Automatic annotation (TrEMBL):
GO CC, one annotated term: plasma membrane
Membrane spanning residue stretches: 45-65, 86-106, 281-298, 319-341, 353-375, 444-462, 474-492
Protein name, per record: Oligosaccharide flippase family protein
Classification via Pfam families: Polysacc_synt (PF01943)
Organism: Candidatus Acutalibacter pullistercoris
Top-level taxon in the UniProt lineage: Bacteria
Length: 510
């Protein structure tokens, strides 16, 4: 892939990703209005259990397909791609159907035991119907990434989002559910409908791509199952263990808050405010990064396959540098206006208070997205597994030990410790395997100071002229702060020359 094509695809994917994030935030805002904070807490808990089954059905598959298809292309054997894709699709279908059946038959005890809401069992069954669609789409996504056609996946995701939202709105308009469980069931059914539509769209694009780009003659690819075991299995075990621990953590939080002294409704509300509202808002700007991060996987995998170590270090250095530069600005913006963002999107200043409180974690949260992609592209998924598992285990232990005594304040402290712990391990591993060099002054101190100065100047200026806290004013504040950020970087960078080039210097490639 040429540099121009890489950036063009990245920009298009970012546009689609931004559309998905914007509509998802609007969707969550709509749901919070229909369900309330307690209903959002139950909604999030149901998805926490479902997330474990999704992990078992999909985790590691996309990466394995991308790596194996990229290897076939790099070795000049594209005729093996059909064999790789067919075997991986069959594997995905077998696994996902098995897990969907388990979820169907175990929905009643899971809802009663873990959710404390037996009436939520139909929600789990309806979600389980979408597992085969999700697993097959994940497999095809890996193929599209490897052959530089990731836009096909993006359009399918957009179709899924639009149908899910439209079906949910229609359900609430037509049936006006009176209970939290019935309302959640409607939202889950809409989600499954969207997954089915996404699969049909992806399958049509997949068949067209095979006919257009891959030789009709099929050569059997040796070692597909071994490749799945080597690449996907560590990711699956890691993600499954982490998802299991995350599910346990999410289920424990309301229970431990009740032991702290909160009523069940208030405990669900506090959980919904943080995990169902504040965290999605904090992650929202990372849509600009996640698109490019996904494109880095096949690019780095091919350079590694060809033993271009300096090229890998060059790509890693650029990715980490620009991620930090991007994240500093949003960390500053959320710290200054987090309460307003929560009020605008959810009508809840309380969720905005969590946004403002957790804003300093934004650089590490965004960095983890990019570093995780780089490590997986470099066959470091086993180490990534260890870090993620350790992080999740520590969080569960701390939740059990602290929440019943100190409430939500202790959970915020746990989030800070956990994020710093995970990011330190992952970034440290990336530095070791790529010989990446980072400068504390040029890549932390100077751009962080510039980000805070520009965001604070924009915030103060708009408040001085009497701007309100409505969405247009907040967007204007972001735009003004962004416009001030580049000259602030220039002022914060010592010496002459382009400040961005000095902040992230070029490295020689092989």
């Amino acid at each position: 892939m040429t540099k121009q094509k890489f950036f063009l695809q990245g920009l298009l994917l970012t546009g689609v990703s931004l559309f998905l994030r914007v509509t998802n935030m609007g969707y969550r805002s709509y749901l919070s209005g229909q369900l309330g904070a307690a209903g959002m807490g139950l909604y999030q808990l149901i998805f926490s259990i479902f997330a474990l089954t999704v992990t078992l059905s999909t985790s590691g598959i996309s990466l394995a397909v991308t790596r194996m298809v990229s290897a076939a292309i790099a070795s000049g054997r594209p005729q093996r791609i059909r064999s790789v894709a067919a075997r991986c699709l069959l594997f995905c279908l077998t696994i996902s159907l098995s897990i969907a059946l388990l979820l169907f038959f175990l929905a009643d005890p899971a809802a009663a035991l873990f959710l404390g809401e037996p009436k939520a069992a139909p929600c789990l069954r309806v979600l389980g119907l979408g597992l085969p669609f999700m697993s097959l789409c994940t497999c095809m996504k890996g193929y599209f990434l490897a052959v530089d056609e990731s836009l096909s996946t993006a359009w399918s995701d957009a179709l899924e989002q639009v149908l899910t939202i439209a079906a949910t709105v229609f359900f609430f308009w037509r049936f006006a559910p009176q209970s939290m469980e019935a309302a959640c069931l409607g939202a889950m059914a809409a989600s499954t409908l969207g997954e089915a539509a996404s699969f049909l769209s992806s399958w049509a694009a997949f068949r067209r791509s095979l006919g257009r780009n891959i030789p009709a003659c099929r050569e059997k690819s040796p070692g597909v199952l071994q490749g799945l075991a080597h690449i996907a299995l560590p990711c699956t075990l890691s993600s499954a263990a982490r998802s299991l621990l995350n599910t346990g953590e999410n289920l424990l939080i309301p229970r431990e808050l009740q032991r702290y002294g909160l009523p069940r409704g208030e405990a669900l509300s506090q959980y919904g405010l943080l995990q169902g509202m504040a965290m999605p808002l904090l992650y929202f700007p990372s849509s600009f990064l996640s698109s490019f991060a996904s494109l880095l996987i096949p690019k780095v995998a091919r350079e590694r396959e060809l033993s271009h170590r300096k090229a890998v270090a060059h790509i890693a250095g650029k990715a980490v540098g620009w991620t930090l530069l991007f994240s500093y600005f949003f960390a500053a913006a959320f710290s200054l206006s987090g309460a307003s963002w929560g009020a605008v999107f959810y009508g809840s200043p309380s969720s905005g208070a969590y946004v403002r409180l957790l804003a300093p974690l934004v650089p590490l949260l965004y960095l983890d997205v990019v570093v995780d992609s780089l490590l997986k592209a470099m066959d470091e998924q086993f180490n990534s597994m260890k870090y993620n598992f350790s992080d999740s285990l520590i969080r569960v232990v701390l939740v059990l030990c602290l929440l019943r005594f100190f409430g939500m304040e202790s959970y915020v402290a746990i989030l800070f410790f956990s994020t710093i712990f995970n990011a330190s391990l992952s970034l440290g591993r990336l530095i070791r395997v790529t010989s990446l060099r980072l400068s504390l002054l040029r890549q932390v101190v100077f751009p962080l100071a510039a980000a805070w100065a520009s965001a604070a100047a924009a915030h103060s200026l708009l408040r001085c002229v009497g701007a309100d806290t409505a969405l247009p004013s907040l967007l204007l504040e972001l735009a003004l702060g962004g416009a001030l950020y580049l000259p602030a970087l220039w002022l914060a960078s010592p010496g002459r020359g382009n400040p961005l080039a000095r902040l992230f210097p070029k490295q020689r490639r092989t």
